Amino acid sequence: MRAPALGDQLADVMREQIVRRALRPGTHLVEDSLAAQYGVSRGPVRDALRLLETQGLVESRRRGFFVVGLTQRDIEDLYELREAIEVVAVTRAIELATPERLEAGRAIVREMVAAADRSHAREFAQADLRFHALLYELGGNRRLIDVWKDCRPLIASLMRLTVEEDVDLHPSAHDHGRLLELIAAGEADPLAAAMRAHLRGARDRMGRAVLAMIEAEAGWTEESAS
Fold first, then answer.
1. d(CA 81, CA 99)
2. Which of 39, 94, 129, 159 lies 20 to 30 Å from 211 when distance is taken between CA atoms?
3. Is the pTM value of this prediction over 0.90?
4. Beta strands of the chain (E only): which ranges?
5. How far apart are the first and last CA of the chain?
6. Residue among 68, 42, 128, 139 nearest 10 (CA)
C-alpha cells in the first residue's frame, strides 16, 4: 500500500485539531503559515484545506480559508446519515455474510475486548472503525461503501475523542459482538433495532464530549477576560 499523500496526512492532523477545538471556529488558516509550521510546500496545504472544505470543517472566503468546526447539529446530521445507511448494510449482510467474514468480525471484537482490558482508547477506536468497515463489506452495496469512505475520516476523529471519554470500553465491545450474532442468526428486526440503539448511543456520547469541550473553552475565555 502506498503511503497517504502529504495533503491527506496534513488533513488528518488538522481535522483532529478542529474536532478537538485546538483550531477554533473562525480561525484564519493562512497557507504560508501552515506550510512553514508543518515543513511542507503550499501544494499539500492547499490540498488539505480543500479536502477539509468538502467535509464541512473549513470554508473558503474572500480572504482565504477559515475554520467552521463542528456543532451539535453537525453530529446529529452525521449520525442520521450513518443510521440510514448502516441499518441497510447490516440487514443486507444477513443474506450475504459468509462464515469466514463473520469470524473476521469476531476477531475484531476480540481485539476490541483486549484493548478495553488495557484501557487503550486509540487501539479500540482503530478496531471499531475496521469493524464498521467490515459491516459495509458484508452488506455488499458498493455505493454504501463509497458513502462510508467519504464519512470515515471525520468519524475516525470523533470516535477517537469519545472513546477517550469512556471509563469502561467493554460494553461497547460487547455491543459489536451482539450485532454480529444477530447477523449470523438472521434476525433482521432485532438487528436493525440494535444498530439504531448502538449508533444513537455513540451519537449521544459524541455530543456530550463536544459540548464539554465547548463549555470548557467558554469557561477559559471568561477567566481570561476577568
1. 29
2. 129
3. no
4. 28-29, 58-61, 64-67
5. 53
6. 42
